[in-house]
Amino acid sequence: MNTAPNSYSVTRKRLMAAAASIAVAGAIGIGALTSGTGPVLADAVRVETPQVAGFADIVERVSPAVVSVKVKAQISPAADDGSDQNSDGFDNLPNNPQLRRFFKEFRGFGDQNDNGHRRSGNRDHRNDQPRPVAQGSGFFISEDGYLVTNNHVVSEGTAFTVVTSDGKELDAKLVGADPRTDLAVLKVEGGGKFTYVDFADDSKVRVGDWVVAVGNPFGLGGTVTAGIVSARGRDIGAGPYDDFLQIDASVNRGNSGGPTFNLNGQVVGINTAIFSPSGGSVGIAFDIPASTAKLVVQDLIKNGTVQRGWLGVEIQPVTSDIAESLGLKSNNGALVSSAQGDGPGKKAGITAGDVITQVEGKDVASPKELARLIGAYSPGKSVEVTVWRDGKSQTIKVDLGTLPSSDKQASADQQQPAAPASSDTLADLGLTLTKSENGKGLVVTNVDPDSDAADRGIQPGDIIVAVNSAEVNATSDVSKAMADAAKSGRKAVLMQITRDDRNRFVALPVAKG
Fold this sequence. Notes:
CATH architecture of the largest domain: Beta Barrel
Number of domains: 4
Radius of gyration: 37 Å
Strand content: 25-35%
Structural class: alpha+beta
Distance between the termini: 142 Å
Helix content: 10-25%
Number of helices: 10
CATH class of the largest domain: Mainly Beta
């Protein structure tokens, strides 16, 4: 018997089938929605680490105080003979700008001073109007427009223009310059109030501190580089007051006169030289310390020049041998090789052979240190100078004079007296000596090339004036001085030698070996 299906069960099956169809359709619809634009991608890699502070805040604040310095000079187009005095030397080259540029760059156009720092600037001698001769950097140190740069940037100039960070060109005049420290001060004429920066206390600068240099390398303007202080107290042979900061921030031609800042936005040094065989940065630059610049700049603004104290003595380093011969415990100090006849040192009683160990209670480590200490005092200042003489210290009061200008030189008669025919040999010293014509001192006529005397630079023609502060006029005087030194337990004797009318001291061992 056939039984009709139950209406409830049929209805339930139909509803379930419909629901299943809707679910499948829904799944297909969602898939189409999510896969229509491609597969879902993972998030980009991002690493959360502590962020290192940059220099942007410092640069933003100090940059308006830094300027480019353009220098022009009046140039004569021709010499008396009709030739061009300022000719490039490339007149016979083909009229090819690229070729001429290559040779100019090869020759290093833009002058280079003695310490290897090149001055930026292209020569132009087309007429006798002021033409560009140099380009460097500078920075404002006052609201009313005083700014600092290098002497070697402005030394050839007759007209000066500064370009501010926003591109304004302003005329400036030269207030004063100091070649000995390579510093100069310009004053902008008009222009309103300027953003300016201050000098830091560079005694607190440590090797390894971050620094930021801002300047005008290659005439690009507004260029910022960063690095660290890599050394202090560098002597690069630029002058008697060398005490440079060495930095490894990239400094190039045109950075001259630009500031180097600490992280507080204060000037710790002024870019003045680079060590570079190629003319570009190799990571070694030298800055005039802020402490030196601050004092010099103050004098230039006040007087237009820098007046320094003058002791009037010629000095040389104290070597270990010299210290031993004089009974000094260390080789600190400056040995007086001669005291100039019109100098304040000689008038006060300082003599050749004295070792200056202190000035006003401040230790003198070297001749450079003595020059800096004396130069920091004003002419006429009375100072106490401590010297080592005859095995003990004594203090001499000296009224300092005024340091002569760098181009003032004392005249000297460089003729050496002819040596008489007879001579004596001191085999232990490797020297052959004879009496001088005036009877004062002994003339060296021969030096054994294998002797200690030769090793220490004694040459034929030198005149031995004294040994251990005792005058010598015969070889027996030299022998006696050596014997006395040996009895006193000294390992060396100190000889005062004259060459080309200049004194120097040489220490020789009492016995060879």
